[in-house]
Amino acid sequence: MRLLDALPPLLRYDVDEFLFSKPGHMRAFLKDMHPVRDLKHVIIDEQGFLIVTENGFEERSEVLFIEDISYVTSPFLPWSLRRSEAQMRDNSTRAWESGNGKSQVQGDLHESLILSQVHAILMEWVPMSANEFEVFLEKFDVRQGNHKRRVTNMFQQVGSGILSKTGKDVPLINILEYKENDCLNFEAEIGFKNDEGICQVEEVAAHINANGIVAFGARVEAIQNRLADDISMDLLSRLLTDLQVDVSEMMENLLTTAQNHMLKSAFWGNSSSRSRFVLLFTSKIDPLLKADGYLDHGEYENEMSQVIGQLVRARDFGNKNNFIVVAQRGMLVVGDRLRRYDRLIFMLCELIAMNQFAVVLYKWTSNIQSDLQRLRMLTNVRDPNPNHFDEARQLRNETSEDIACLEEIMINLSGNLKKVHVPPSPFEDFGQKLYDFLELKKTHDNLTRQIEDLTSFVCCYKAEVRSISVNLRTAQNKRERGTVLKLEQETGRMIQYSISEREQTSVFEIMLGIIAFKFLLVFLDSFITARSRYFGIAALIDSSSNSSTGSPTIAGFSVVSTSSIGSPLSSNSYFPLQWAIQLDKIPFFTIVLHLVFCALFLVLLARAYRHRRHDPVRDVKIQTDLHVNLENLDAFVLRHKKKRIEVENDFNRHFKKYQFVPTARVWGPSKPKIIVMVDTSTTRLIWASITRNEKLSLWRWLLQFVIYRKFSGLSMNGLEEDTLNDILLDEFSKEGILVDPDAVVEQESSAVGEEQVEETKVSQQEGEDDEQERTHDEDMSMGSDYDEARHDKV
């Protein structure tokens, strides 16, 4: 805050104008000359940066907008990359076209450095194997001598094998030279469309090496109205940015699908905007200073950093007209004498390009490490979410794919690095100084150690993924076992509930039976007790009136004399009543008799109830291959209830499905539903289904099923399914539905025999007709010969 208070008013106004939006209408000014400031917020979307405020202000940022300029370039490759003396195109005579073009540069340029005769090379390393290099050669068709063609983005396949032109202009490629298992050089005329008024004559030369090094070179002929001897560093940065975009688009079509996949994985889907190492050769620079003079942390260093990145080191060689400035993303080589050592400089650029890709891979390993850490957390945490293991498996699969892709890239990178051999030091003092400054051996050794470390990381990641996979599988198995155990427990609990409910229902039915049986016993006991009391009263009457005549009556009933009853063991005694009187005199006999009869009833009822089906539906299916008579079957089904006939077709076979409920008494009180499937083409019974509902009350089940089946042959716990099958087949046999197979065979053989006899008769008749025609033809020919002979004789 003290710093803000110390700012001058003009600087504070500039800062506020950058951070806060202006009022959207004049009402704010009229209301308050100093309105409440509306702070800007930045939102990132697919199109770039969007600046918004809380009051509705919205504006698209142009910070990512690339200002197009007009320029002219010619193809260029250093002599160390060439394999022949084929001439490349020269567009120096077209430099004037750049001055006629427009520019989208807004504002004034701050030109601090001016270069002369600039040669720019964009260099990168891509995963390249021997097979993929062969694919390059096959794609360019260099072995057939076709050295000029349009090969990238020319056609796209639509529909079924139809080729149609794309809307973009197509780069024209001219093959310069190639060498088996070494490199391919070509020049390309990039003709992508530009905005109206922008004139770009963009031609580059490309070098694709078998070790994965890809270099694009161009000689700057003109930028806007500035010719090759007067190139501004600021304008050069715009040219190189545009060249980066066009080269990336062209390379995406040249690379194979596997290479594009590896690049997108390494750069997290942003492979088209990957940076390349920039190598600039220039003959002169203005102002001309010593190499250390450009590391001033001022305008010179800032302007160089726009093109080649942050400066690292610089050194003069011989005089101040020859020096090299090395930066993080590029290198500036000033002086014509250094061009004699292009091979050394280019080898350093190769190693730096590989090192840049190794740095990208190292950042990728950090992301893989975070994914593995998250995967370990998902494996160890007990999450009740059912999709927990699905997310863990998906993350495990994605991480495994990344590790596999990283391992493949590491194999290519280590193999290609072995193909790079550091040359020995030159004999000249100038060359030795340059060799010592470039530090090729040190850079090569550092890159080798980096690749070894990355290879060890990949091995560790693979082992960790395997261990995590085992732990994940174990945790999933435990969870599945727990789920299955819980499901079994819940299922067992439900089964227990069902059994208890069924037992409660059974107990209720049994209690009803006990109460009914108890009522019967009470009725019998009351009857026996009443009879015994009757005879006791009768004996009392006999003892009081022995002299009276006739039989006394009680409540209108005649009383029998006790003398006529006699003893229970005598032959003339009234047996049931005497036994009832004697047994009634035994203490607690009635209670014991009730308990015995109840226990006996419970035992019999439990034994009968054990054989009762708790599942009320019985389903029996028969699979046969019997011949049937379709007419008799149709007539049989139409006589029954709930009949239904359906016709089904399957390819060349025709089926009939019959559904009915039989009415015969042999099926018992519960009539089943029968479904029969017949193949009408072969008249064979394929299968039959019998479904019966046996859900009845206990008393109806006891009376109808136990007793009825006892006398009808349907056993409860016997072979009931076989009995149902036999009943159905017997019904079909009685109705004449089933046909004897031997009769069918005889009928078929007789039909075949009749057909053969008919065919024999037809063939014999045809033979006789042929014989008659042949005889007639012979007679006609003999007659014509006789007439001719007679005519000759006459």
Rg, rounded, reads 55 Å
Distance between the termini: 151 Å
Outline? elongated
Low-confidence stretches: 24-35, 150-168, 553-575, 712-719, 778-794
Mean pLDDT: 75
Structural class: alpha+beta
State the major sheet: 12 strands, mixed
Count of strand segments: 30
Strand content: 15-25%
Range of helix content: 40-55%
SS summary, helix count: 18
Give the oligomer, counting copies of the same chain as homo and different chains as hetero.
single chain
Overview of the molecule:
The protein is of the alpha+beta class. Residues 24-35, 150-168, 553-575, 712-719 and 778-794 have low confidence and may be disordered. It contains 18 helices and 30 strands. The strands form 7 sheets. Strands 6, 8, 9, 12, 13, 14, 15, 16, 18, 20, 21 and 22 form a 12-stranded mixed β-sheet that branches. 49% of the residues lie in helices and 21% in strands. A hairpin with a 3-residue loop joins strand 10 and strand 11 (162-165).
